[in-house]
Amino acid sequence: MTTWPRALATTVLIATVAITPAAVHAEPLSGARYVALGDSGAATTGAVNLDPTAPLRCLRSTTNAPALVAQRLGLTLDDRSCSAAKIGDLFRSQGPEVAPQLDALGPATEIVTLHIGANDADMTSYILGHCHAGTITGGCAAEADPQWDTEIDAIAPHYAAALAEITRRAPNATVFVDGWPTYLTNASCPAMLGLRPADAAYIQSKFERLNTVVAREARSHGAVYIDTVTASRDFGMCADPSTRWFDPLLADHTLLPYHPTPAGQRGVAELIVAAIEASTVLDH
User: Fold this and answer.
1) Is 159 in a helix, a strand, or coil?
2) Distances from the Cα of 141 to the Cαs of 31, 91, 145, 204, in angstroms?
3) Of the candidates 77, 62, 71, which has an alpha carbon nearest to the alpha carbon of residue 32?
4) Tens digit of pLDDT for each residue in 58-102?
5) Which of 74, 96, 191, 281 fits as disulfide partner to 174, beta carbons 3.0 to 4.6 Å?
6) Where do the domains of the chain lie, and which CATH numbers do they carry?
7) Which one-letter DSSP state was computed for residue 236?
8) Are 222 and 210 in contact (CB under 8 A)?
9) pTM for the full model?
10) Is 40 a catalytic residue?
11) Catalytic residue among 25, 30, 40, 279
C-alpha cells in the first residue's frame, strides 16, 4: 500500500473542499436588472394611474416612462423615482418608507435610467415665483436674475458624483440619462394665464441650459444622454391638449403644472427605448 506524503494529502483535501456544492453555487448578484432613478419628471403622471404600492409622497405612476420602457422591453423594473427628489436623495432617504434610490443598484443591474436635477436648480421657485408672478410686474425675461443660471450650473459636481456612485454600485450597467423636453417655445397661450411670449422663451432657455449641464456630465462619465427637446418641439404646454407632453398652468390632465402628461411619458419612453435598443446592453 502506497502512503501519500502528508503535504500531498492536505492538498487533495483542500481541493475537495473547494469543489463542494456550497462553493460551486455562488450567491446571486444583487440589484435589479433595470433600475429607474429620478424625480417627478420620471415618477409621475400627476393624478393619473397612481401606484398604490409606492410611497404616497412619491406620486409614482404605473404608466410613467420607466414602467412603459420595462413593459416594451420585457424587463423587470425596480422603480425608485420619487416626486420632489433632489440629487442628494439618491444617496439618502427622502422620508418615511422612501429608501435611498441608489440602494436598488448592484452588480446584476444592466440598465439604469436617470432623470433628476431640476429641483436642485430650484426651477419651480424661479418659474412660479419669478416668471409667473412677474406677469403683473414686467416679466422675468425683462428682469433676468443671473442667480438662476448660477444655481443651474451649480448642480454639475453633484450630478457627477451621483453618476460616479452609480457606476461604483452597478459596474455592469449602462446608464441612460434623459433630459427635459420642450415646455414652451417663443409663444404663450391662454392656458399659461398671461405668461408673456418673451417669458415663455426665457423659461425654455433655462431648461435647455439645464440640459446642457446634465448632458456634459453624462457623457463625461460614460452615460448615454438622450435629447428629448427635438422630438417634443411641437408638444409643449401650449400644444393641443390631446397631444401636449406637459400640463400648462391650467393643468387639465394631471393637476400638476409643468409635469408630464400620459402622452409626455409615452413620448419620453419611446426615446429611451430607442436609445436602449441602439446600444449593446440587451445583446447578451
Assistant:
1) helix
2) 46, 35, 9, 11
3) 77
4) 999 999 999 999 999 999 999 999 999 999 999 999 999 999 999
5) 281
6) 27-122+158-183+213-278 (3.40.50.1110)
7) S
8) no
9) 0.88
10) yes
11) 40
